[in-house]
Inverse folding.
């Protein structure tokens, strides 16, 4: 048990040192890389390791007769979580989300330290000591709190209320609800039921399973499946249309959306927000093909009311592309990212 | 002997009266339906040559037009008479208060039925009396609330009639027979609840008690049907059926009732009502516990709070799954509606909802951990609570991560785009399903620990049983998390289907582990008694938190469900042309919900106070059966 806890403690100490380095800027945040595609799991695993490490440190200190007070365990644990979220995770997490995570962590720590009477007493003891103020030193400390706490609260309140010159926060709707139908080049398309005419099998029939089997494979990067190369000169049907869609994409779209479709094209950083990242599981992977068809056709100017503040400079591509070209581009985007369009059956 | 036979006769007559009351609305409404059916004939007679037909907007069937088209309203005193105030907000308030009380009085009789039944099948006579008294206490609370529900219902109808006459006129022209049945069922409900309450003492033993229990079944059948009928109106407003594109009724009342969202709404609402009712009663018990002066009272209200919480949570656990089904049906009905709810305009309200759901489960777990403190021998589990806290916290953090993040343009730029590579993954359904299932499974684990807190299994296979349970829970967590990750690598329609094995895993834990634990704890050695009343006050605040979160979430979800219609009174049929046909800001909605919650809690405190004024506090026999006259809770849990 002790050996296990020692390993845990070692992990905890290394972790704390790394995090301290990142906080003061000696160690860059990406010194221990967050692996693309695995980041969410990696972050949870790291937090689990840290908690295991702290358990080990606490155990070892207690076994050496230097038990760490529960009060400080709680306070430092919370401080650790806040620091981790602020300095370890990159790109930086917006304040609103950190505030949510911080609040939940605070509640969780309260639940931990007050889960039973013994722990709760241990946790409260330093607070009660200050309130009781039985010695002169602690009495001074109590007076100090009496002055400092109202000042701090006042300071926070002032800071929250004082007018700032920063741009206001925005609640931008990433996926506004689409209309029931959209009219492109004189033809009306019902979004719930329309299908991409080029997502077809060799017999020329709409076949999602067939096309899904030919999209690139996701994993550490994206790899073309064997015998599913759209740039093969013999490619027919679906793959041929993917190639045509790719050509249209690289002639028109990649300047903003990037050659890897991750929203980091040549001109991308001239805009805020940068163009949509199709490789993110929260964009085209969540949507029907017809949604993409509607967005590409109508562009930023065609966003509905609820999409305020309409921060999009996407052109209405129906003014530049034919309907067939738009469908082909959509086909290519799904193929390249390895995602499957949402269907309802 | 003669007296007993007389009572039997009385009881049977009472039951027959209730059943008659139950059937009365149906019988009376038949002519109404018949009139509806006659209407096409009338049309035929008037003009044999011209029978106008319409196509059902949902069922796509053809029917003879028997109703007027939905009115095309214009902003003005005719269609939208008003005070110098937003009519919609007044209606919101009246509706919400009626719903709170309605839910409460529908849920509590179901609890009474369950608890009364438990009392009847329990072999321990003292325990049976205590269950009986608890059921009586519950119905007593709901009786005053029942009157307030009726008053609020009246206020709601007057608000509709005076502020939205055109809309309400249209709705009532379509639902005429349903509204009559509804009103008559309300009469039946009233009759039944009063006979049930006032017959408690007269039907306290033997066969008569079974008759009394049967009355509670009848009462609950009426209550549930009432709710289903009310659901048909809101179902129609969201996903109309039985009318043509102009909103003209096509003569089939079943189509109008049985809309795309009616069934999921029914299931979701009944579970929600039960969870809400449990929360309110638990909060009542917590309030009484905190105000108690004696150990006996504390013991009683501690026990009452526990039972109410357990019943509430029993319905809370399947609630997210019912909600998931409802959302699935919403997406199937109209993609735009689903996206507006979960990915678009109202997405942030869903994040708040996720937060409230998390708070509910966290409060439940916290209460159970505190409850371990009143059992001697439960200390062995307390040292592991910190790990449960960690697992719950991670599940909660993933569950509440927003897909649409609130941020400044500077933060947006620093993040390098709208999508965050970590948060973006937590913000979608696959991760969230994993998060909520982890939370629920952990809650089940907490319950298992609680149920075996002061016991040591004596069965010969206890070691094997413990290992099996450990492995089962371990595998459940692995399966849930694995499926959550796997969901990113498969098509969306398959991913949606993954929720089935995830839910099955969670429910397997619930049923198999509870059953196995029950078998292992049969004849178990007691390490010490449950010291009812010796629970921390923090636990009681957790119960109050639980109830408040239920109330707030109910208000929130009602608002979301209603506002998803956007600028429609009846989706795609009747447009809202009032000046308030816009969606409120998140902040305004949150304030309004908070106001409704506060008003409800202040008014329900009044109801509790009224209840405490009652001279007769418990059935005479139940009181007499308890030593010392004070209620003593049971030893089991």
């Amino acid at each position: 048990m002790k050996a296990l806890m020692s390993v845990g403690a070692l992990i905890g100490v290394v972790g704390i040192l790394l995090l301290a380095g990142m906080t003061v800027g000696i160690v860059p945040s990406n010194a221990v890389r967050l692996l693309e595609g695995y980041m969410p799991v990696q972050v949870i695993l790291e937090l689990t390791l840290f908690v295991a490490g702290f358990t080990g440190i606490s155990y070892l200190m207690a076994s050496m007769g230097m038990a760490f007070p529960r009060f400080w365990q709680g306070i430092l644990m919370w401080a650790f979580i806040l620091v981790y979220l602020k300095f370890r995770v990159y790109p930086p997490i917006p304040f609103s989300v950190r505030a949510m995570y911080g609040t939940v962590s605070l509640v969780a720590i309260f639940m931990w330290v007050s889960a039973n009477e013994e722990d709760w007493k241990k946790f409260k003891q330093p607070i009660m000591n200050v309130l009781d103020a039985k010695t002169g030193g602690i009495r001074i400390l109590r007076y100090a709190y009496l002055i400092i706490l109202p000042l701090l609260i006042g300071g926070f309140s002032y800071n929250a209320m004082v007018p700032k010159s920063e741009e206001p926060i925005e609640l931008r709707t990433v996926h506004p609800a689409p209309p029931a139908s959209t009219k492109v080049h004189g033809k009306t398309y019902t979004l719930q039921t329309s299908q991409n005419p080029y997502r077809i099998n060799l017999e020329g029939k709409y076949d999602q399973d067939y096309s899904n089997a030919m999209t690139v494979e996701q994993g550490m990067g994206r790899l073309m499946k064997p015998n599913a190369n759209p740039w093969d000169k013999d490619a027919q049907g679906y793959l041929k249309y993917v190639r045509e869609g790719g050509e249209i994409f690289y002639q028109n779209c990649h300047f903003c959306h990037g050659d890897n479709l991750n929203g980091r094209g040549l001109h991308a950083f001239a805009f805020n927000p940068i163009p949509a990242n199709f490789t993110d599981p929260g964009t085209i992977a969540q949507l029907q093909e017809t949604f993409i068809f509607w967005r590409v056709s109508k562009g930023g100017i065609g966003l509905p009311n609820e999409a305020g503040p309409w921060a999009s400079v996407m052109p209405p591509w129906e003014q530049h592309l034919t309907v067939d070209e738009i469908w082909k581009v959509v086909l290519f985007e799904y193929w390249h990212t390895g995602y499957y369009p949402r269907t309802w059956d | 002997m003669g007296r007993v036979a007389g009572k039997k006769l009385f009881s049977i007559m009472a039951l027959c009266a209730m059943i008659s009351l139950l059937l009365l609305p149906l019988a009376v409404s038949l002519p109404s339906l018949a009139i509806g059916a006659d209407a096409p004939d009338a049309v035929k007679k008037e003009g044999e040559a011209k029978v106008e037909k319409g196509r059902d907007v949902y069922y796509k069937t053809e029917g003879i037009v028997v109703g007027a088209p939905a009115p095309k309203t214009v902003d003005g005193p005719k269609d939208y008479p008003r005070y110098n105030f937003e009519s919609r907000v007044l209606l919101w308030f009246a509706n919400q208060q009626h719903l709170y009380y309605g839910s409460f009085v529908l849920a509590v009789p179901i609890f009474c039925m369950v608890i009364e039944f438990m009392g009847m099948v329990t072999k321990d006579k003292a325990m049976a009396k205590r269950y009986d008294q608890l059921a009586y206490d519950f119905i007593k609370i709901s009786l005053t609330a029942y009157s307030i529900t009726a008053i609020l219902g009246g206020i709601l109808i007057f608000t509709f009639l005076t502020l939205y006459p055109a809309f309400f006129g249209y709705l009532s022209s379509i639902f005429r027979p349903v509204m009559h049945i509804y009103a008559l069922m309300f009469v039946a409900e009233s009759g039944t609840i009063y006979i049930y309450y006032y017959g408690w003492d007269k039907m306290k033993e033997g066969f008569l008690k079974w008759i009394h229990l049967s009355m509670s079944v009848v009462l609950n059948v009426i209550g549930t049907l009432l709710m289903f009928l009310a659901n048909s109106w809101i179902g129609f407003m969201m996903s109309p059926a039985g009318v043509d594109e102009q909103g003209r009724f096509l003569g089939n009342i079943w189509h109008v009732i049985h809309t795309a969202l009616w069934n999921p709404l029914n299931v979701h609402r009944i579970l929600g009502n039960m969870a809400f009712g449990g929360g309110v009663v638990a909060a009542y018990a917590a309030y009484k516990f905190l105000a108690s002066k004696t150990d006996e009272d504390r013991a009683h209200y501690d026990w009452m709070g526990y039972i109410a919480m357990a019943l509430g949570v029993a319905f809370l656990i399947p609630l997210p799954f019912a909600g998931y089904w409802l959302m699935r049906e919403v997406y199937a009905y109209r993609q735009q509606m689903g996206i507006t709810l979960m990915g678009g305009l109202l997405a942030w309200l869903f994040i708040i909802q996720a937060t409230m759901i998390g708070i509910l489960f966290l409060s439940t777990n916290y209460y159970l951990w505190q409850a371990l403190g009143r059992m001697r021998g439960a200390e062995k589990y307390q040292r592991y609570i910190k790990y449960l806290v960690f697992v719950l916290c991670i599940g909660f953090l993933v569950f509440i991560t927003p897909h649409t993040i609130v941020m400044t343009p500077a933060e947006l730029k620093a993040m390098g785009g709208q999508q965050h590579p970590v948060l973006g993954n937590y913000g979608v359904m696959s991760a969230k399903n994993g998060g909520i299932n982890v939370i629920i499974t952990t809650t089940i684990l907490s319950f298992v620990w609680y149920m075996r807190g002061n016991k040591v299994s004596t069965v010969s296979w206890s070691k094997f049983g413990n290992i099996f349970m450990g492995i089962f829970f371990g595998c459940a967590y692995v399966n849930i998390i694995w499926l959550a990750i796997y969901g990113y690598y498969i098509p969306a329609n398959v991913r949606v289907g993954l929720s089935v094995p995830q839910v099955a895993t969670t429910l397997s834990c619930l049923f198999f582990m509870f059953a196995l634990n029950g078998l292992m704890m049969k004849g178990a050695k007691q390490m010490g008694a449950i010291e009812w009343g010796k629970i921390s006050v923090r636990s009681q605040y957790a119960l109050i938190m639980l109830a408040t979160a239920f109330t707030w979430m109910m208000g929130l979800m009602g608002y979301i469900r209603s506002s998803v219609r956007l600028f429609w009174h009846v989706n795609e049929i009747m447009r809202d042309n009032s000046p308030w046909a816009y969606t409120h800001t998140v902040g305004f909605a949150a304030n309004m919900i908070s106001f409704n919650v506060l008003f409800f809690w202040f008014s329900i405190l009044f109801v509790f106070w009224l209840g405490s004024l009652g001279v007769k506090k418990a059935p005479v026999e139940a009181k007499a059966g308890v030593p010392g006259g004070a209620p003593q809770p049971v030893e089991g849990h």
